[in-house]
Task: structure prediction
Amino acid sequence: MSLELFPFGQAGERTPLGPSAFLLHGFVLPHTAQLQTLIQAITGQSPFRNMLTPGGYTMTVGLTNCGTLGWTTDQHGYCYSPIDPMTGLPWPALPNLFLTIAREAAQTAGFEDFVPDACLINRYVPGARLSLHQDKNERDLSAPIVSVSLGMPAVFLFGGHARSDKTARVPVKHGDVVVWGGEDRLRYHGVMPLTDQPHPLFGSERINFTFRKVR
Result:
C-alpha cells in the first residue's frame, strides 16, 4: 500500500479527495459542544462496545448507533438491525442537529436530498485503528457517506477500488467532515492508529460518526 499525504486545511475550506469526495475543514465547529451533549445522551441509552468481527477479531474502536437502523457485527457477519443487540431496544433516534449536519454537508459536497437512516458512532482511544474496508452493506449505494470527526486528530486513509491501490493519508481534525459518494462511494478507507494528542473538550478520545442511507 503506497501513501500520499494531503496537507492540513483551514476552517471553511473544501479539499477534494476525488471526483465526488471532499474534506470539509471545520464544518461542524460551531456545533461541537452541542454534539458532545447529544452523543452523551445517545451512549447513555446504547453504550459504546467493542464488537467481534466474523473472523474473531475484537475491534479496537468502540461503536454504537442512532437512527432507524444500526450497524452491527459478530461471528455470524455484518448487518444493519433496528434493535440494539446489547439492550434489546430500538437504537436511539437521530437528533435533529445530526440530520441537519448530514444534509448540509452532503449538499456542500454536491449531493442533494440526502436523508440518512443510520448513524454509526465510533470512539477511538490511543492506539485504536480501522483497517482498510469498503462500506457496502447498504442497499442504497447512490447515497453518499458523511463522516464527522470530533476530539483528537487522526489520519484518514482514502484508497481506491482495490485494497492494493495507492492510499492517501488525509489528516482530519476536530470539526472536520469527509463526504464521499458517486464514483468514489466504494473506495477503500480506514484510519491509522491514533496517537495520544488530548483535546480540550474530548480528552484522549476521537469521536467519529458516519451517516448512511441504508434503504
